[in-house]
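User: Continuing from earlier, I have the next pair ready.

Assistant: Great, send them over.

User: Here they are, in order.

Assistant: Folding the first of the pair now:
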Amino acid sequence: MSMTRSCTCRSIGVAIVLIASGCGQKDGIERVVVSGNISFSGKPVEKGQIRFIPSGDSSGPITVETIDGGYYTTEATGGVPVGVHRVEIRGYDPQVYANAPKGPGSPPIPQLLPKKYNHESELKATLESGKSEETLDYNLSP
């Protein structure tokens, strides 16, 4: 068998393994797709970010999703790992957010929500094993 044919056969084998394993997250962590609505003072948080940070004995990656029009979902990231999480919510002025530079080294976007919902958050979410989806709404007050 020639070198080219051997490499081609190996490449096809790798492709078959990748296709057979699927495209989802295969890290062995059980996850729950979480979604919901977020409001502040009775109005939807138009632009923002929600973070689920494992706490206590819970482990796994931090899950970060955008809030758009008061709604968020973790479907695109495969969900939030099962367990207890500290929840941080950030809210931004939609116009400032749209025009702000983003990426490493960019200045922070001004925060509209009180620190008790983000940097100093005591919000918690507990996601139980065996569930595939969960709705968590947050109605925040000043």
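And the other member of the pair:
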Amino acid sequence: MFRARIVIAVVALLAGVAGCASQAETVGAASGAAIGAAVGGGTIGTIGGAMLGYGAGRAYDDRQRR
């Protein structure tokens, strides 16, 4: 039950980020979360992966805008 609440919170967080993020940032966050969960890092791994993926997407956007 506790895990389901965390998953719902992460999905809501990603939906919120998707509303104000570029496509690269959204894809980075989603794929980072998926990789973090697949590695078996649990909640911390999933959230950490999403944060790293979002940062990578943002860096990609910054390089493309030059």
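Worth noting for the second one:
The chain has three helices and no strands. The CA atoms of residues 18 and 26 lie 5 Å apart.
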